[in-house]
Amino acid sequence: MLQRLAEARARSDDLFDIVRPDALYDRPIPERHRIIFYVGHLETFDWNLLGCQFFDLPSFAPALDKLFAFGIDPVDGQLPNDQPQDWPGRAEIKAYNDRVRETLDERLGERFAAAADESAERRETERLLHVAIEHRLMHAETLAYMLHQLPIDRKFRRESAAAPSARPATARMIEIPPGTATLGLRRAEDGAFGWDNEFEEHSVTVPAFRIDEHDVTNGNFERFVEAGGYQERSAWDDADWNWIQSSGTAHPCFWVRHGDRWFLRTTFAEVPLPPDWPVYVSHAEAAAYARWTGKELPSEAEWHRAAYSTPDGAERAYPWGDEPPDASRGNFDFQSWDPTPAGAFAAGLSAYGVADLLGNGWEWTRTVFAPFAGFAPFPFYPGYSANFFDGRHYVMKGGSPRTAACMLRRSFRNWFQAHYPFVYASFRCVER
Fold first, then answer.
1. N or C: which end of the chain has fewer CB within 10 A?
2. pLDDT tens digit sequence for 367-417
3. Where does CATH 1.20.120 sit in the chain?
4. Range with lowest mean pLDDT among 36-50, 70-84, 259-273
5. For the structural domain made of 2-154, what CATH number should be given?
6. Cα separations (Å) of 415 from 23, 141, 351?
7. Is the domain 173-217+287-431 a CATH 3.90.1580.10 member?
């Protein structure tokens, strides 16, 4: 666990190293904090969770503990108006972070040395470390969304892994027979770690449906754009139509028009729009495209059926089987800064032949994010999920190129609100 914590810290440190020093106080996404907030937030979260709550240690910098405690939900409608001078200097934050790490590492080492392997004390220590590690890795992904929006000349370039070759993505839809989908995670005293919204395990009966073999690609979505899909009122529900009208949205936020050609703004360059990469769009745009084609987004349970069920009625831990994720199965776990062509990982196919279910982009569902029966918030982090059970957030499944492997477990649920366009999220459609 301590090794995993060290690796997660190295991951977030490396991400901040991409930012040029004079850009640390930039705000690439208007609804979010400045980058400098997140430099302090990750250590503050660990300190408030482990140092203050768990070890009951006295604070050595209470003002910073409070300043860096909470981020901003982009759905609140109020843009922050702080200025760079309102934040501490980089050297002060680094000194704070170093002391937090040194203090926590010492206490955690002592706790693991003293606690018996199967003791309740050790299990609780491990659970809180899981929270700290996955919280940091979640930010390593969402910070990638933020840094993506930072002007290219404000960051140091990193190379992406070479994309594997792939057969052209087809428009084929795959038949999924009726059956049961197991959602959630079984609660057990010595069970696997999961966030509060992953509990309790339950079964859902799912009628037969057809699902796209591949995610919708840039090439597919370009036809929607060029056909006037963003001006087609019938493709949008009322709230989504009001959003695109008020925001002036007329194409995916990662796309850039130069003359008569579309380009894609990747993290470190602008490239001619790759037609075979999955398109990254908001939930509103995904739902409009699906409606335009006469289809719809899958439910969370339908997505599970396509990903984990098998013709013999069993369910797998991962789409390809029970073997843990590795680089042959998909584009995830920080392998790449960019998507890969749809269908590039034949070793990652589900039992029914559905491609790219883990990695290459989260996948929107039509399921509103809500608690499962038996939900109980973490007492040490009560707002992690409950603050978002507001009817405005939608479940995403799968994972992106910047999703850590530990969060590819079957029960993991991600969520965002419908009009937030900066997420590495694609989609596929279903019909009956």
1. C
2. 999 999 999 999 999 999 999 999 999 999 999 999 999 999 999 999 999
3. 2-154
4. 70-84
5. 1.20.120
6. 29, 13, 26
7. yes
